[in-house]
Amino acid sequence: MDDQEFKVISRWWQSMFLDAAVLKEKNIYPAAPTAHKAELKRCDSADDALLSEGFRALWMALLNGGLEEILQPMSKERQTQKLEAWATVAAVLVHIKQDNGEKLAVQAGKKLNKQGKPTDKSIVSELRFAKLQNTPTPDDFLKRLRRIIQQLDGKVSPTKVAADILQWFEEHYDRQPRKADKRITVQWAMDYYRSANQKASKSTSTN
Questions:
Q1: Cβ(131)–Cβ(188) under 8 Å?
Q2: Residues of the chain whose pLDDT is less than 70?
Q3: Do 96 and 158 touch, CB atoms closer than 8 A?
């Protein structure tokens, strides 16, 4: 995700979740929450999201921000894949309620309870996170990712989650596999277990 896409996705998410006063300071027009958020939250697939007003607002902002020039030389198949990826971004990010600046895997691995106090279990279990890593299809990916974000109480970085989604789609449709350390699932595993171990060591040192 380039800088322009980063700005677009950030402003799009903020338009739905920040207070009107804060949006005014940032010169961002508020989205229509009942029309955009509620509609996107009901989407169970990228195809559903493509028909939503919330996604159309995001897509038009991306095209105006330079994405159209990037898409033009691509094949129709590649353009469709990009569209599917961004529709998934919209359908997932609408479940993020608070931008805490954290990566998805880092937040998932933290050993905290619902009150934010240290515990001996990660917020997201290893089994559930492993299911996300082994997701076979884009629709399953959307659903599993959304469930994890709900388990995180919607607290994670929208832009970092968007970057993860776009990379997942790049790898899913890429006919030339990336090196192991460059794959999103490997990066997730490293972030998840590093976060879990760090929290566990802190908890141990205070007892």
A1: no
A2: 32-34, 199-207
A3: yes
- CA 187 vs CA 47, 107, 108, 122, 197: distances in Å: 28, 14, 13, 17, 16
Q: How far apart are CA 162 and CA 55, in angstroms?
A: 13
pLDDT tens readout for residues 112-152: 887 778 899 999 999 999 999 999 999 999 999 999 999 99
**HSE of 59, CA atoms in CB hemisphere, 13 A:** 20
Who contacts 162 (Cβ-Cβ below 8 Å, separation ≥6)? 1, 9, 89, 93
With beta carbons less than 8 A apart as the criterion, state whether 54 and 40 touch: yes
Q: Is 173 exposed, middle or buried (0-12, 13-18, 19+ CB in 10 A)?
A: middle
